[in-house]
Amino acid sequence: MRAPLRHFRLLSTKSKPQSSLPRRLLKRLISPPAETPQISGWKEWFAHLNDDSRIQLKQLQDNLMKDVKVDGSMENTLMMGEVNQFHFQNSLAEIKTPTLLLHGYAASSMAFHRNFEGLSKCIRDLYAIDLPANGLSPPQPLEIRCTEPQPLKIEISNDTFKLPYTINSLHHKSAIQNFEDYYLDALEQWRLDNKLGPINIVAHSFGGYISFRYAVKYPHAVKRLCLLSPLGVERNIFSVNNNWRSNTQYKLDFENPASKFYIRKGPAIPPAIFELQTKVLRGLGPLGARLCWNYITAAYARVPSLKYKQYIFEMFYGKNALTQTSKDIFTGLFTNRLLARDPLLDSLCHVRSKKLLLMYGDHDWMNRKAGLEMVTEAKKLGIDAQYGEVSSSGHNLFLDNPEESNELIVSFLRN
């Protein structure tokens, strides 16, 4: 019998430190798994010169879903012409609260294709959507209701840092709220359009960040919140909540993600790559196509489906598949060290969900100590918070090990 979830693999955060994120990205680009089928960079480059990525994504989605078997019914619609939605209904399932699966950055509802079967056995109304401007959900207008704030430039030297000038934190928070509201208000409209009451949310990475913010802004709408390797948890020196004094030296903290002096070890993602993202790959022509395929086959090495790798390749390399709107929002909310400008730990006191679960892969590159810290602080606030890890999995834990991930999610939603 499995140990209680709150104790499951709690000590594994002491595992061997991993290499920096830029180094892992580089390794994936140049060293694909030997057993993975290779592609012709020239052929893919030529095929993607003018193709409409949305048409290709639709065909790849339908092809991928042909292999998915679920208990009950399955319906795919473009809800109100704005949100690509899958709805799985199983009247015999025991979990009655509608549950939403929310994908991460540069992904879509298809990220959960290996979870649909297992979760649909236990959840009566299971939903998975593409966020606006992601996957097959078309972009909606991004309204920025404030001027661009003065850049937050932090000068880092060895183990210290300082700000050359004082920033207007309220101005920065207003800009951040504009970016967040693009998704938060769309999620609330989606819930109302489906005529749903309070829901459970199971969300991955960037989707975890968004769902947490949604639970803060719309506390009546979320019963239970399950964050799968969420992005943006840790406090950090770039947080707009810190109120640093200008030209004052502060000491960095490389270990404690609960500290406002925290920063990730290792180099940052080069600014040009962080801003341009997949445009860099497309700009490299046939070589970019080959490098993109190398990265995908390495990052999703534990996922057996070649169809899914082809789908993700289209998401990354397809013309305008990763929209400028989604890129602008992401770079507006995070730094090139993948640290949130407004960290989730700073807003934990505003969460009103009944239960909270943080889940990570046992080989996750995301900061698991930050997840443990969130659970610890949440318990002090009276939230029923739990922590769990999934074996033989990395950042995409629900894809790498869907059976164990489903078991932990269902246990959390059921009990």
UniProtKB/TrEMBL annotation:
Checking Gene3D superfamilies in the record gives:
alpha/beta hydrolase
Pfam families associated with the record: Abhydrolase_1 (PF00561)
Protein's GO biological process? cardiolipin acyl-chain remodeling; lipid homeostasis; phosphatidic acid biosynthetic process
Q: Quote one Gene Ontology molecular function term.
A: phospholipase A2 activity
AB hydrolase-1 domain residues: 100-257
* Gene Ontology cellular-component terms listed: mitochondrial inner membrane
Entries under InterPro entries matching the protein: AB_hydrolase_1, AB_hydrolase_fold
Q: What is this protein called?
A: KLTH0G13178p
The species is: Lachancea thermotolerans (strain ATCC 56472 / CBS 6340 / NRRL Y-8284)
